[in-house]
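Worked example

This section walks through a single chain of length 166. The input is the sequence exactly as stored; nothing has been trimmed or padded.
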Amino acid sequence: METNRTTSAIVRLPGEGARRWFFGGGIHTWKATEDETGGAFLLFEDEMALNKVTPLHSHPESDETMYVLAGEILMHMDGTEHRVPAGGVAIALRGVPHAFKVLQDGTRVLCLHTPGSAQAFYDGASEPLGPDGEGGDVDFDRIRDSGKVNGGIQIMGPPPFTDYES
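Given that input, the structure is written out below as tokens.
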């Protein structure tokens, strides 16, 4: 397999990396991009607000690993719910249906996609964070549109949580 790495080493200090508002809610700090890793992976930190939810979805061409840095999420994976507190990890292998809900304010996760092929989806489903450091509105239509145009995600249905109201 040929790689096209743009750098030989990546070092990012806390807070460093491109910061983007993700239309599903949350601020991404990109720690290592698909281009920088020769396609091997995409790594970003996601800061999320209490009660953020994702629709039921899968990533057909990448494995998604979520390591909880702070707070707690409820992970619905392959039909089962798991509480994942800080220090815990959830891994959705490619094609596995999953969704999550944020259970604590200030929740932060480190998200790793291997390979990095889902970056086009995340790029299309986000925009650079404004100078005020604030995000915009949650817009699931833009999430769906980016998935259709860029691949990287398959939306399978609404959030599967019993206490979720659309």
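What to look for: The chain is about 10% helix and 40% strand.
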